[in-house]
Design goal:
alpha/beta, Ribosomal Protein L25, Chain P, Alpha/beta knot, 2 domains, 7-stranded parallel β-sheet, 6-stranded mixed β-sheet, 7 helices
Length: 246
């Protein structure tokens, strides 16, 4: 069953209305008709609204709320992914998979070894596209909310922003000791927010690792093999999901 996000004000008692770009998608792409069922979420109360389409107009779709279900699909901790800007379209894949794995926010980071440099115009365009990918992935994976893609930060800005998380890790290819990695990631507890730093192609510069350690961000290893930037983040998020999902 297809899922869509609406503002809380668009669901009132037993009636709901869908507006914006989803109207065209429902009518002309999915070709849904009166009587078809869909799921609505408002991104705030955690509820799933099972609705029946009542009317399809030019600018809005009217629905009847048939059932309301509680039950969270979110991880019990907020997971922040600080992703070093990768080349080409890798960021789109990273966002899609990270949202499926339960990430709370994704923060693009301009690291020293990041090849991609975004000017203000390109960044605005990229952020709009990235946020759209996050929304689509949230719909597909039946998330309760749409993870936000933050504006690009410098490494120093990212480190400062990460202080909201209780546990902060930074995979580093020169680090050793899988036992420590297992201890840190295996010891995560519900409600402990987590920040994960992933480097771009070429990894983090030594001074960035030193800065992270000064800020008590814990270096970890992901094994003896070198993982691509688009693989490393998914690996850590998968481990976190495994330990935290309830």
């Amino acid at each position: 069953m297809y899922q869509f996000f609406v503002n809380p004000s668009q669901i009132r008692d037993q009636d709901a209305v869908i507006k914006g770009k989803d109207v065209n998608h429902i009518k002309n792409v999915l070709r849904m008709k009166q009587g078809d069922q869909i799921i609505l979420r408002n991104g705030f109360d955690g509820r799933k609204y099972l609705c029946r389409i009542e009317s399809l107009c030019e600018e809005e779709i009217g629905c009847r709320v048939c059932m309301i279900e509680d039950g969270s699909t979110e991880l019990p901790s907020k997971v922040y992914l600080f992703q070093g800007l990768p080349k080409s379209d890798k960021m789109e894949t990273i966002i899609q998979k990270a949202v499926e794995l339960g990430v709370y926010e994704i923060i693009p980071v301009a690291c020293r070894r990041s090849v991609v440099k975004l000017d203000e115009k390109k960044e605005k365009s990229k952020l709009t596209r990235w946020q759209g990918i996050s929304e689509a992935a949230a719909k597909q994976s039946k998330r309760e909310m749409i993870p936000q893609i933050k504006e690009v930060m410098s490494f120093q800005e990212a480190v400062s922003y990460s202080r909201c998380a209780k546990v902060r890790v930074i995979p580093y290819e020169l680090w050793e000791g899988m036992d420590k990695t297992r201890e840190i990631l295996g010891g995560l507890k519900p409600s402990e927010d987590v920040a994960v730093f992933i480097g771009p192609e070429g990894g983090f510069a030594e001074e960035e690792i030193e800065k992270a350690m000064q800020e008590e961000i814990l270096p970890i290893t992901l094994g003896k093999r070198i993982l691509r930037t688009e693989t490393a983040g998914m690996t850590v998020l998968s481990i976190i999901m495994y330990h935290l999902d309830q």
